[in-house]
Specification:
The chain is α+β, with helices and mostly antiparallel strands and about 120 residues long. Helix 1 crosses helix 4. It has one domain: Arc Repressor Mutant, subunit A (Orthogonal Bundle), CATH 1.10.10. Strands 1-3-2 form a three-stranded antiparallel sheet. The protein has four helices and three strands; from the N terminus they run αβααββα. It is about 55% helix and about 10% strand.
């Protein structure tokens, strides 16, 4: 069982990398596609100086691979990346599940839909 922050591929500061891994669990993507998907999720397009170093770090950890296709690079999640994503997903759920539940319960009159 993982008990230290360093045992996780994504801690709270690594939420950006967590989002990238989540996108790559759906399909392989070019960096520009990842940027567009992140823009749709976050409301702003990530800076290339943020995205590409994050992808490089994920590749260094063997959580993703990349392969050149013409002038572009396609990124794919590895089996290790999928396993680490599952661990990170469970970690974030533990961190936020109660928070969202309490927020929803406290603000029921303000919300129209369920967060869960």
């Amino acid at each position: 069982m993982r008990t230290r922050k360093s045992d996780y591929c994504c801690d709270m500061r690594g939420f950006f990398s967590f989002m990238v891994l989540w996108l790559l669990t759906k399909k392989s993507m070019y960096g520009s596609e990842i940027a567009e998907e992140l823009k749709a999720l976050r409301g702003d397009r990530p800076n290339p100086g943020t995205l590409y170093p994050a992808l490089k770090e994920l590749e260094k950890k063997k959580l993703v691979t990349s392969e050149r296709e013409g002038n572009l690079r396609v990124y794919r999640i590895t089996e290790k990346g999928r396993a680490e994503f599952e661990v990170a997903h469970d970690y974030f759920c533990r961190c936020f599940d109660d928070l969202f539940y309490e927020w929803e319960k406290k603000n029921t009159h303000k919300t129209t839909g369920s967060i869960r």
